[in-house]
Design a protein that fits this description.
Elements lengths: L2 H16 L9 H9 L7 H11 L4 E4 L6 H11 L10 E4 L3 H14 L8 E4 L5 H9 L4 E4 L1 H10 L9 E4 L2 H6 L3 H9 L6 E6 L4 H10 L4 E4 L9 E8 L4 H11 L5 E4 L3 H13 L4 E4 L5 H12 L5 E4 L1 H4 L9 E4 L6 H8 L9 E8 L3 H11 L6 E2 L15 E6 L9 H9 L9 E6 L4 E6 L3 H10 L9 E3 L1
Parallel strand pairs: 1-6, 1-7, 2-4, 2-5, 3-4, 5-6, 8-13, 8-14, 9-11, 9-12, 10-11, 12-13
Antiparallel strand pairs: 15-17, 15-18, 16-17
Helix pairs in contact: 3-4, 4-5, 7-9
């Protein structure tokens, strides 16, 4: 081996070692847990954020959704916990219930190396009574949204005198949603010697101001938004504002899009586009901030379980939506913030799979395309709507229908219990059962459309874990 090759090999080994979780001062049991969970090498945000955070420093970090930021704050938070102290030692504030639920689930996974670590989710849209009951038995970590956290602080059902780590996740969205005063009130109830980890996908001036108010000499960590991966095919189409709805329908036919998230900038546009797609025969649902939390949860679950094909959403509502295998993303509106474009289309083409990112924009949005091109550092070419071809095709109904069961983890229910209830006496083949998701107070199971009615009757008439539960079709 030549000297140059040796130097190159040594450099690669050093880089690999630096990105290895074993290079961090983590408990050996946690390292084994990380390996079991498939955490093999640190992502860029983890490489930069974990060493100072584990050393106890405050952190001001810029990183996008899907960058691995949850582990970047969860590992330091967990490392500072005293399992024998059931007071709240870690608090994570999130802008939406969907994100809070997702974060809590990941913290539970990362905490598996220790016994009896209790993680409680406090969000609106759920009864406050069961939450108060959970807090009465203590919670090491609380994950919640600002409004509901304030409710518990005012009722004194949540107290934070022993808090060690405070995390603000997606702080930019919290400020956009008007939570600045609520966050300030919550922080005022925490000890001044806490560690504060602030994560934001974008870095506007008000994030700098928030950090200066809440943190002590924070370390700034920035992972630049990356160029969309080469696995994503991008196509942009220009048209008049009046044509956008028709062009969207033509794009769905031309590209034979099986499943997609359609992004709009406003709630009114989400409602309009959803109605037009539904009128055209598509299995579609809307997701926006004016919806009741229960309805938002059910829409997300239907999309995850492939019982609807299209989801029309605003950016804020889609935070917390994490689909590993999303074939396509469609921008019905160009986002106002250029970084959001990269975040949106980065939801497809993950894990080396091919993805498709389609964008419809009107003449009046042309200036935003120029700004986006400048931000990406490359020209963005757009195509003519006249290039779209493709004969009319029959719109296929989704393969699955989702059934909702009025029982969940609170009832000691597990996915295997639901699968057994369907494949036992009912004789439904296991291959006809899709994803099963068990939440705290409810559970959802996807069943092939042709057998959905049979499955519904079986679950209604039969028992799960020896008990009867209400079941309905979504």
């Amino acid at each position: 081996m030549s000297k140059q090759e040796q130097e190159s090999s040594t450099s690669e080994q050093s880089t690999a070692k630096a990105s290895d979780f074993a290079s961090l001062p983590l408990d050996p049991e946690q390292l084994r847990n990380l390996a079991d969970l498939g955490y093999l090498h640190m992502t860029p945000i983890q490489t930069q954020a974990l060493p100072p955070a584990l050393a106890g420093k405050d952190l001001l970090a810029q990183a996008a959704t899907g960058s691995g930021k949850t582990a970047a704050f969860a590992l330091p938070l967990l490392s500072r916990l005293n399992p024998r102290d059931f007071s709240t030692q870690g608090l994570v504030i999130c802008p939406t219930r969907e994100l809070a639920t997702q974060v809590a689930a990941e913290i539970r996974r990362l905490a598996r190396y220790r016994q009896n670590i209790k993680v409680v989710v406090l969000c609106g849209g759920q009864g406050i009574g069961p939450q108060i009951g959970s807090l009465q038995h203590g919670a090491h970590v609380v994950v919640g949204t600002p409004g509901r956290l304030l409710d518990h602080l005012r009722k004194e059902t949540l107290t934070l005198p022993r808090l060690r780590t405070l995390v603000l996740d997606e702080a930019d969205r919290m400020l956009e949603m008007g939570f600045a005063e609520d966050v300030a009130t919550i922080v005022a109830a925490t000890p001044t010697d806490r560690q504060t980890l602030l994560f934001s996908a974008t870095y506007p001036d008000n994030i700098q101001q928030l950090g200066s108010q809440l943190q002590r000499d924070p370390q700034r960590v920035t992972v630049q938004s990356e160029e969309p991966p080469s696995t994503i095919d991008e196509a942009l189409y220009i048209c008049s504002p009046a044509q956008k709805s028709e062009v969207l329908l033509r794009l769905l036919r031309h590209y034979a899009v099986p499943t997609a998230v359609v992004f709009c900038n406003t709630k009114d546009t989400v409602r309009q586009v959803t109605a037009e797609l539904r009128s055209a025969g598509h299995a579609v649902e809307a997701l926006h901030g004016d919806m009741e939390q229960r309805d938002r949860d059910q829409v997300l679950m239907q999309f995850r379980q492939q019982s609807i094909r299209l989801l029309v959403a605003t950016d804020v509502a889609a935070r917390g939506l994490d689909i590993d295998d999303l074939p396509a993303v469609i921008n019905y509106d160009l986002p106002r913030n250029t970084e959001v474009y990269v975040h949106r289309i980065g939801r497809t083409g993950r894990a080396g799979k091919k993805g498709l990112a389609l964008t419809v924009f009107s003449d009046r949005e042309r200036f935003q395309l120029d700004r986006l091109s400048e931000y990406l550092g490359r020209p963005l070419e757009f195509s003519s709507v006249a290039d779209l071809s493709g004969a009319e095709q029959a719109i296929q109904a989704p393969d699955y229908i989702t059934l909702c069961i009025a029982g969940g983890r609170r009832d000691k229910m597990r996915p295997g219990d639901i699968l057994g209830a369907l494949t036992g006496e009912a004789g439904i083949p296991g291959t006809a059962v899709g994803k099963i998701d068990v939440l705290t107070m409810s559970a959802y199971v996807a069943v092939e459309r042709r057998l959905a009615d049979t499955a519904l009757q079986q679950l209604r008439n039969g028992r799960i874990k020896g008990r009867k539960f209400k079941v309905r079709k979504l």
